[in-house]
Amino acid sequence: MDVKNIIEKISQAADKGERVDGDSISEELEKMMDYKKLMSKQTPIALLDYKKKLDSTKNASKILEAANTEINNSGIVLPTGSLLFHGGSLWNDSTNSIITERPLSTTLNLETACYFMNTNKAKSRKNIFILTIKDYGIKSFVYNNKTKHSNEKEILLQAGIQLSLTNEMPIKTDYNDFYIVEVDVRMP
Fold this sequence. Notes:
It is built from 6 helices and 9 strands, in the order H-H-H-H-H-E-E-E-E-H-E-E-E-E-E. By secondary structure, it is α+β, with helices and mostly antiparallel strands.
């Protein structure tokens, strides 16, 4: 499974007005990166707080800082070539590259990315990002299947990584217009 295959599956489903079979894509990606071996045995408090309290607290900056420290101290390095999804926005439309300032929530589950694309709080254009890990050394935390919302297959990437636009393609359907945005993930 590569980016081209994923884009083709999304485009074909959009052309037919059908739901994308995100489960089959997710299963293939899991096998490619040996997802179950990368999963955490237990979730540190700082990363549970990130999942549970981030949107409902005034201490967001402290939670983000603690989560990033935990990822850097005890996270795992994702294999080069790993593919991940993110739904929503990452930067404004006039930028082609950014350095992240906070941990980045990604997923192996395309349907999760679609959900977050459609609930985008920034109200900017709708995007499904396909991220490719290009450099060795990018730290992450792979949530296990015992946490709340484990169906999301969330992988949290460390802050301070460079995201660079490589390609984007508009998708127009009868019920939703969005972009598929390909992004390389590197160490700056």
